[in-house]
Please model this.
Amino acid sequence: MESDISIEKFQTKSPPWVPSQDFIKTTNIAWLADQAGVISYEELHQWSVKSRETFWRLVIERLGIRFQKAFSRILDLSQLRPGI
Model:
């Protein structure tokens, strides 16, 4: 049975909500970009891949994640084998 509902009725030419610059400045991703010293999402992504340990340390700090035991390192890539 074919539906009488047209998808065009639900499509809009602009997003229903666009955050203000003041709102964007309060987000976790804006805070992280500031900590990393970058100004775009693409730069933040590149930095997070290159600086994984710092990235995760900052994420844990910002989100207030608590662990039962203290850790000596946030990320240990010593056993990582290239290509796997």
Observations:
- The chain has a mean pLDDT of 88.
